[in-house]
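input
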Amino acid sequence: MPQFIYNTCPICNSKSFSVIGECSLGTVNIEKPEKIQAVKCKNCHTIFANPLPVWNKEDFAELYNASYIPALDTTSTVIRERIIPQRRFREIEKHLQTKNKEFLEFGAGIQAFMAQYLFQEQHWNIELQEPSQEFAIALRKSFPQAKVNGTDFLDMNADKRYSVIYSDSVMEHVPDPIDYFQKCADMLEPGGVLYFVSPNEHSFRNWISTLKKTGRGVGINYLRPFNIPYHLVGFSRKGIKIAAAKTGLTVVKHTRRNDYEAVNFIKQQSGVLKYPVAFFLYLVDCLGFGTNQEIILRKNK
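output
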């Protein structure tokens, strides 16, 4: 059974929060508390599971295995392999203040699209950290040119310095994000950047999905600690600024936009309907209620 952290914001340590709703406990074969809620910190607006589960190795293996990774269709694969890495690398170049080409991705999973793009197109030195043994074996087969490190991220040797540390859809899975921000800061060169991507739990989609479920007894749409994708924390703008200030990092870019699924949805619309749908999703992005967050933090010199 995992340990649990009760009633404390994982970003600012405040114990003042409002309850959004009760999360489903799912069917995963792990012992659980009697109930688990999604709550919002009144100080930094971080959304987090209460209590926060701290997984042991057996829990981790039960949660993150081959059944966790969804299959991608051809269009989604092209977008993730080429279009997204190119756009994100352009953003990295704008904010990077070191010329070395040392790249680390933690929680790389089995695809590591950004790392493969940097290796093949930009000729960077690549290291991948992946704590799941099953995923690490798959990575070594699919990307033999990269060094794959199976050590827990917080236990990695901090002697080596990286220009870029990258994390796509990982931070929301950990109950102690401040420790991860600090570890990244310790391992970055001065002027290096941490680029992390996380779902936006404050998104319009979450709000409307939960509204549709109200009164049906099927739970809210914020966080799913015991259901795939096992999210524990939803980051806010204020919370990220607090985390950066605590760990010697500076927020240099923060966007909250709709992801490739929304782009595909727009393309599937026909005729006149496509334009109001596209405009509405663009407006949602501008207001900061898109489904995805992309954040660049730079280590202070």
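quick obs: The domain at 73-200+235-256+293-301 is CATH 3.40.50.150 (Rossmann fold).
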